[in-house]
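Sequence only, no structure available. Ideas?
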Amino acid sequence: MSSPTPSSIPKATGSSYRTMLLLVVNLVAQANTVTAQDCTYPSDEVEYYRAYLKINRWIQRGICLRAGNVNQLCYQRLESTLGTLSVIRAAEYNGAAGVLALLPTIGALLGAPTTEIWRLWTVVPFGGGLAMTLSFGGAILPVRVEDYENDLNNNQTILGSVVSLRARRGKGLEQNEEEARAKIDQLVEKIEARMRQDDSQRLPRGHLIFGLCGMGLLFVGAQAAMAIVEQGGILPWWCVSRWWMHLWYVLVTFSAIAENWAQVPFKETWKLFVSDIPYDVTVQNGDSIITKLEKPHESVTHVLRQLGSLRAGKATFHGSQQYTRPRNAVLVMVSVVKDGDAIVGPALRLFSKCASIATFVTGTAFFASTQLLAGPVAVMTVTLVLAAGVFSRAITGWIVQGVNKTEPMLHVIVNSTQEAQHVIARILSLDEYAATQARGDEMRKTQVEIDGHVFIEQRRVAHRSPWHLRALGVLAEPFDLRKVGMWELARQDSQNTSSLEEVELGLLRK
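Reply:
I predicted one. Tokens follow.
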């Protein structure tokens, strides 16, 4: 019996490799065919077109089509599934995609922008941010200064309203300056009286929390509906995408916020959190911020950005230091109107408008081309998204209406940074005005917080993170001055301890 020659072994081995490769290819093809057939939905066939929608089976089919995250396999399964559709079911899916394509036009149904979202954003920033996330591309903020001035009540300065110092047409400059001085004096008197009144006016937290919870439920409902759509619906040009509708939501929300902020008619805004001091405190040493603000070559923007460079004063407590909550607090917002001559503003508005148009076109392409989208799911999604957009506006107005009863915010509109500088200086000088008006023990000092820096008698005494006030707004508690005393005691203790250690070290050396 002859043994095989060495030359015949490679040929046999190469033939077996080719056989095995063909076998693997056939198995992969069969696996793909089985997977495509397994992804079919029984109610899509002709004899089952009257069957009710089973949402779990419908979502499982979408997951089955995207299994593996491979576009080629997903397209093969999608093509196989579309081939099994009955005419009636295909018509339903096409109609559902048309219904969903209405979502990019939701902004027109929400109506014109109002100042409610702006007010909620300034008073409670995280609540205003939640309202903005429910805009779905609609107009959020007014673009004209006159829209922010509509709360004036016969030129009366009231807390919770807008105080406009803008020059009016048809009047002389001198008369406007006199009117501005009178309004600033009236503003200071109102704030001073509010700080020293016996009755405490606080935000209705139950009212606010109830409204924000309602907006949170609308937000969760809209997000859940979008998650269901994108799990069962398939984009024929982006088959494996599982979060395509949330991508549209992020794009439309950010483009709407960017467009609205680009059109806000204010170029600079400062927030001053004014509250009364429930302790007997005096301040020694420290640099006065008024001295900086009164310098002609120093702008308010430059001064307020370098508050940390001011030499801090020392706060000394007299009497009890038991915790006492301040009676009242007011958030004063000073805004400077845009002059309209800058180039950056129009360019930014043009860019944001182009981004909004691109987002609108992309969203329409997303929804109009969606495949295998069930009609009931499309109707449910459009209903929940529209309800979230419409009712969030109503809830925002309801929240602001209740919040305004406590008058927590005052918006001052000025023409220039010089006027803003004068207004801020007058607010920081509230104690000087109170000293001429108060009698005996009726005098109560005030503290003003700007960007986390706390001022008493025009001098900086403490600092905390500005994000506390930026996130919570007037819900944030005023800075507790007892912490300054605690820090001073801790510093003295550390100095005493270090002195004792030095003495002990000296004795040991001896």
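Residues 8-38 form the longest helix (31 residues).
Hope that gets you unstuck.
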